[in-house]
Amino acid sequence: MKLTISGLTRSYKHKLAVDDVTAELTPGVYGLIGPNGAGKTTLMRMLADVLLPSKGQICMNGEDIRTLDDRYRDQIGYLPQDCGFYSHFTAERFLRYMASLKGIKKVEAEAQIGELLQLVNLSGERKQRIGRFSGGMKRRLGIAQALLGDPKLLILDEPTAGLDPKERVRFRNLLSDISGERIVILSTHIITDIEYIAKEVLVLRQGKLVKQAKPDLILKELEGKVWHVTVSSEKVDELERHYTVGNLLRRGTEIEARLISDQQPTADAALQSPRLEDIYLYYFGETGGDDR
């Protein structure tokens, strides 16, 4: 299976939200990272066929998704950033409703619903109304609906938002288990979500795809650029003005800092082994904004 994205572009009035993105994806987990406003949500909505591109093409196995139409949508599992729920529905009823929308036969749907509720640790709450769910429980239910129908393309926009650390680990393991025969695209601000499971990382900045590579290859690019320094608390502001600073740890009157720099920032700065979270700092620094 192959998903081919060619020159994909989407503009809103005078703003380019996604700018000429081209990529090729095969089965495995892809981590999509970028600051708010980078265009991640817009890109994922186009891939999920809920938003038309201004230009460009998406093909599944060489065939345009416009031609495939329902045959493409039948292969998609999509979890949007803001997943709407009917608060008076129970978890069980909601999944039955979603299964009917996806055209899944009743007997098959019932079997899947039981398995998926167990998978996302909601079996005990299957008859509870969604309006009583916590944010994390709603997110888990959203993940379950995305998996209905055993989709070959799974598009997940910030799926672990609201999940506690234990739930995030469980979810990462789940994605790793199911990714063998399907394409999983995972957008996240939590770099540890993709650190051990991503086949490749896609770096999106200002609507452009600036990097698509295996995590270890990107980490090699950061060798010699990650530093540990110790400075007095009075010099922290100066450090932050000149460098991209990650972690800060106060030890008495001194501050230990981890920072990104192409050159040695101070005479006593010591090189550190790069981590995946350093990729985010290297490409984006302190950038931010409203996501689309």
Automatic annotation (TrEMBL):
One of its GO terms (molecular function) is ATP hydrolysis activity. InterPro entries: AAA+_ATPase (IPR003593), ABC_transporter-like_ATP-bd (IPR003439), ABC_transporter-like_CS (IPR017871), P-loop_NTPase (IPR027417). Belongs to the ABC transporter superfamily. Keywords: ATP-binding, Nucleotide-binding, Transport. Residues 3-231 form the ABC transporter domain. It holds the Pfam family ABC_tran. This is ABC transporter ATP-binding protein. It comes from the Bacteria. SMART domains: AAA.
